[in-house]
Design goal:
The protein is mostly helical. Helix content is about 90%, strand content about 0%.
Length: about 80
């Protein structure tokens, strides 16, 4: 709480133009840091192969379904 009071007193002693400049600098700093971080996160994201993976999984699923059906048929014929 003491920190907040000292911050308010400091801002009160500054001119309005200085407070605006300080806020503009803080906003600029936050936006540039977050945009660099977001760009890095997007560039490190290696999910571009997901459509290919999904197609491969669908193909595997259809093949396994065929194998299960054939195995069930063979089991039924053996009994």
């Amino acid at each position: 709480m003491d920190t907040l009071i000292s911050l308010i007193q400091t801002l009160n002693s500054m001119s309005p133009l200085a407070v605006i400049a300080l806020l503009a600098f803080i906003i600029y700093t936050l936006t540039t840091k977050s945009s660099k971080k977001d760009v890095q996160t997007i560039s490190d994201n290696h999910l571009s192969g997901l459509p290919d993976m999904a197609e491969t999984l669908r193909s595997m699923d259809s093949k396994l379904t065929t194998i299960v059906q054939d195995t069930s048929y063979i089991k039924g014929r053996l009994k």
